[in-house]
């Protein structure tokens, strides 16, 4: 639970100042610092980013009556269902976060294995 | 093993991140685009909430207050003129930055920079046409006037102060989609925007096609089929108006002005839906005794909206109207004393000169009996993802050589090996006209303001609270011999050069004519008594006649009756053609469906409304009929493009010359077709092709669906940001000129008087952001033909419930 929370908070703060790909750096770092298994690292990285992205996107969507979400769904997926974007957005952020977390954990394993 | 695993995971993670951070061809960088912190989500906007926002910007001299009303129209209150134009730049950029920059990039031939070599030919065309050269000249003209210079600088500084506040997350969405960043604004971009307007409205030229026609038919038949004054006309300056000046000596045409043409391909027809209406009704005909003015400029309907409403208040002015994003001041609008509007004149201000080079080195050309040096101008075209290209353009004293004989032209109406003389290459100071109109109080102020105007020539309509109305086809008109530039010109003879200018004071103008109103709808500027040549052909008179017929019959005119006239969908052209055509249809050979269609058209009341089926049939029929009459006589040849006589001449033909040889199809040997046959066959083919497209005669043939009016985003194919299949009546040559792609881009009605009151709407919204509630919020009102009251505030302290939020600019 702790890595998930740390990833969520740190990545949210980082993205206020840094480009979007800072999520990869944050999840890599956190999972390097602390994660038990590769699966958990991926899970924490994925959910830490995906939850933040989903909540923020949902907040914007609701506050702006989904005007742009609708147009973008039409533009990117030729569908009038803005909900698709609310799923694809966290999925993409989550994948980037998840793989970065997994990489963090695996790199740590290299160092840990050494005497 | 662990190391391999780690490296593998690192590789996946890094590639994934890089892949999502990268633009792939036209596919945007998805990571950046979808990130809620940085991507499109950041462009989503909510409606203006009651708020007081203070923005600290560098560059204002004193504090500026901007009040936004419920339609997101800014009302700018500044303590000096500099601050007003600064604020206009700042807040226009806030709503329209991408559009402002994109349009000026297009005019400057810089689209390849953004989207790669797909746009190369377009860019090259704009460079060759001398857009940059013209913009530089304009900037020179504007900079010579200290007032214009200061306006330009203030406006540019305002835009830049907004750009300085941006970071990638807050860039307008189009930058995120196309993957680039805004660059600093410079005054020359204003000049580019005005050149773009001139290109849209005053770069039409049929000279090449007319030359081919003359070679094909000979001078006499050409003059007969392409007359210099229409069969039916009701000119802008009422026929019979006396000219109150002594004209200059008009140059005489050289004895032999013939020249031949080089290669070119098919002609792209121009869209008759580009044109405009305006009129002013004198106090004697209005309900409250003060003049009313109306204007609706028709342009290619696009998003972000072409116009941006604004009110500018300083100690020297209080003006409201629409501006062009990218140009300071108000272009069409009103103040407490006057109102004005514009429609396009369509003057012949672009001519082609055949250039004779001394040799293939093209260093010198022949003119006036001697070899003159060719000037070279190198244009550097940057291309996204590729090395920049350089293009050398040859300049003669006429102007740039658009294409050399061995090059393929981009547009088919441009002859190769010809230099182009174009009004847009002159130094001018058009923004001075609007600066003065924005502050005008009297008729004399209007006349003075117009004297500074150059291009694109406009019919400036005027009304004021002192009960004057006036109209003037106005611009800088070259002094030419009659019909000079109807055909291609030989560039070696000085007699073919432009011979100076029509004095501004002698531009056609009429004030308070006896009929009690003035109007224009792009028809002929004057009757043939005007001593100078402006053009040989204008838009057909259909809209003009309909407007004049209606206005003549009106008394006690109100804002609402003017609004209804703007939305008039009476098909004047049909009312002239059908009484002649219908009796010619031979009913014996018709199928059931064709008979039924004929009946529908016979019973039609000429209202081209959304549900009209007869309207659909007529519109398709008339264009097929024109094609059937003329296509065989003007055969399409790739290297010899020709055009047909205009629809006014066709009307004269079917009305007065039913036995003319033109009805015979010359491609059928041993047979002579008659007018009856051609009318019948074209009707049958029209009905059959409509049935093929829409099914059996019925509701699916409704005009609005058939026409499919669309208001499209400036990026081609971006349907998600466009409004398609808008259900609206009217169309080309109809007062409500909503065509497939072009139509009324702004409708305004102003009641002058002790308390000015004005109404307006445009198809779109104040914001250029597709993520804003103000992007398309006015569309439905426009579609229904309603107008919004325009909130004209007298002072910054005025309390009005329509004011939603306040923005203060200070340093």
UniProtKB/TrEMBL annotation, chain A:
Keywords: Membrane, Transmembrane, Transmembrane helix. The chain crosses the membrane at residues 6-33, 45-63, 83-104. This is Uncharacterized protein.
From TrEMBL, chain B:
Ca(2+) binds at residues 348, 351. It comes from the Bacteria. CDD domains: Ntn_PGA_like. Binds 1 Ca(2+) ion per dimer. It holds the Pfam family Penicil_amidase. Gene3D superfamilies: 1.10.1400.10, 2.30.120.10, Glutamine Phosphoribosylpyrophosphate, subunit 1, domain 1 (3.60.20.10), Penicillin Amidohydrolase, domain 1 (1.10.439.10). Belongs to the peptidase S45 family. One of its GO terms (biological process) is antibiotic biosynthetic process. Residues 1-21 form the signal peptide. One of its GO terms (molecular function) is hydrolase activity, acting on carbon-nitrogen (but not peptide) bonds, in linear amides. Its cofactor is Ca(2+). The active site is at residue 276. Keywords: Calcium, Hydrolase, Metal-binding, Signal, Zymogen. This is Penicillin acylase family protein. It comes from Larkinella rosea.
């Amino acid at each position: 639970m702790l890595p998930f929370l740390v990833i969520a908070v740190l990545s949210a703060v980082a993205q206020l100042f840094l480009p979007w790909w800072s999520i990869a750096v944050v999840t890599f770092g956190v999972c390097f610092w602390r994660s038990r298994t590769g699966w958990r690292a991926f899970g924490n990285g994925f959910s830490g980013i995906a939850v933040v992205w989903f909540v923020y996107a949902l907040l914007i969507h609701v506050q702006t009556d989904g005007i742009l979400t609708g147009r973008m769904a039409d533009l990117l997926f030729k569908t009038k269902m803005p909900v698709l974007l609310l799923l694809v957005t966290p999925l993409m952020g989550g994948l980037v976060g998840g793989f970065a977390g997994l990489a963090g954990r695996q790199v740590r394993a290299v160092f840990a294995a050494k005497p | 093993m662990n190391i391999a695993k780690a490296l593998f995971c690192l590789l996946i993670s890094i590639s994934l991140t890089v892949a999502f951070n990268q633009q792939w061809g036209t596919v945007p960088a998805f990571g950046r685009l979808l990130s809620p912190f940085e991507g499109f989500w950041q462009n989503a906007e909510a409606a203006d909430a009651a708020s007081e926002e203070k923005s600290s910007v560098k560059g204002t001299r004193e504090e500026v207050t901007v009040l936004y009303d419920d339609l997101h129209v800014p009302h700018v209150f500044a303590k000096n003129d500099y601050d007003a134009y600064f604020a206009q730049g700042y807040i226009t950029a806030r709503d329209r930055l991408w559009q402002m920059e994109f349009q000026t990039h297009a005019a400057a031939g810089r689209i390849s920079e953004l989207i790669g070599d797909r746009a190369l030919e377009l860019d090259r065309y704009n460079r060759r046409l001398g857009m940059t050269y013209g913009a530089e000249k304009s900037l020179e003209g504007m900079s010579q006037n200290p007032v214009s210079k200061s306006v330009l600088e203030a406006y540019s500084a305002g835009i830049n102060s907004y750009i300085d506040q941006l970071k990638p997350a807050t860039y307008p969405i189009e930058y995120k989609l196309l993957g680039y960043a805004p660059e600093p604004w410079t005054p020359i971009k204003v000049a580019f925007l005005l050149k773009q307007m001139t290109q849209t409205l005053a770069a039409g030229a049929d000279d090449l096609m007319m030359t081919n026609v003359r070679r094909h038919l000979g001078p006499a038949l050409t003059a007969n089929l392409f007359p210099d004054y229409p069969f039916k006309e009701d000119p802008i300056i009422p026929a019979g108006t006396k000219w109150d000046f002594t004209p200059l000596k008009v140059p005489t045409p050289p004895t032999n002005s013939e020249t031949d043409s080089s290669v070119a391909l098919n002609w792209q027809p121009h869209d008759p839906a580009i044109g405009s209406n305006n009129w002013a009704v004198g106090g004697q005909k209005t309900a409250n005794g003060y003049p009313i003015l109306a204007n609706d400029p028709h342009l290619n309907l696009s998003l972000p909206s072409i116009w941006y409403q604004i009110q500018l208040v300083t100690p020297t002015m209080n003006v409201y109207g629409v501006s062009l994003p990218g140009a300071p001041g108000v272009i069409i609008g009103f103040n407490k004393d006057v109102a004005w509007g514009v429609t396009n004149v369509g003057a012949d201000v672009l001519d082609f000169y055949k250039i004779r080079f001394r040799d293939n080195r093209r260093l010198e050309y022949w003119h006036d009996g001697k070899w003159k040096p060719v000037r070279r101008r190198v244009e550097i075209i940057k291309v996204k993802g590729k090395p920049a290209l350089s293009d050398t353009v040859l300049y003669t004293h006429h102007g740039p050589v658009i294409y050399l004989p061995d090059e393929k032209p981009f547009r088919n109406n441009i002859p190769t090996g010809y230099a182009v003389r174009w009004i847009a290459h002159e130094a001018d100071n058009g923004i001075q006209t609007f600066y003065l109109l924005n502050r005008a109080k009297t008729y004399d102020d209007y006349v003075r303001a117009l004297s500074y105007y150059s291009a694109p020539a406009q019919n400036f309509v005027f009304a004021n609270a002192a009960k004057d109305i006036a109209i003037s086809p106005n611009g800088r008109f070259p002094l030419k011999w009659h019909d000079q530039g109807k055909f291609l010109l030989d560039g070696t003879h000085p007699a073919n050069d432009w011979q100076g200018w029509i004095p501004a004071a002698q531009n056609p103008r009429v004030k308070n004519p006896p009929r009690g109103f003035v109007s224009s709808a792009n028809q002929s500027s004057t009757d043939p008594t005007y001593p100078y040549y402006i053009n040989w052909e204008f838009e057909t008179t259909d809209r003009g006649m309909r407007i004049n017929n209606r206005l003549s019959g009106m008394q006690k005119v109100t804002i609402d009756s003017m609004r209804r006239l703007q939305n008039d969908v009476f098909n004047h052209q049909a009312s002239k053609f059908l009484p002649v055509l219908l009796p010619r249809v031979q009913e014996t050979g018709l199928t059931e469906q064709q008979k039924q269609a004929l009946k529908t058209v016979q019973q039609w009341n000429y209202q081209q409304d959304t549900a009209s089926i007869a309207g659909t049939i007529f519109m398709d029929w008339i264009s097929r009929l024109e094609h059937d009459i003329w296509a065989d006589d003007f055969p399409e040849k790739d290297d010899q493009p020709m055009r047909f006589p205009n629809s006014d001449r066709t009307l004269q033909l079917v009305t007065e010359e039913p036995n003319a040889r033109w009805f015979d199809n010359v491609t059928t040997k041993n047979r002579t077709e008659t007018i009856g046959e051609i009318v019948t066959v074209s009707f049958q083919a029209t009905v059959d092709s409509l049935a093929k497209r829409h099914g059996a005669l019925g509701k699916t043939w409704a005009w609005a669906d058939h026409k499919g009016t669309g208001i499209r985003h400036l990026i081609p194919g971006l349907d998600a940001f466009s409004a398609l299949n808008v259900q609206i009546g009217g169309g080309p040559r109809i007062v409500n000129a909503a065509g497939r792609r072009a139509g009324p881009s702004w409708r305004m009605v102003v009641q002058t008087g002790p308390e000015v009151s004005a109404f307006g709407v445009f198809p779109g919204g104040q914001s250029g952001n597709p993520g804003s509630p103000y992007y398309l919020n006015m569309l439905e009102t426009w579609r229904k033909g309603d107008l919004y009251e325009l909130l004209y505030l007298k002072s910054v302290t005025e309390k009005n419930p329509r004011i939603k939020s306040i923005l203060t600019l200070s340093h």
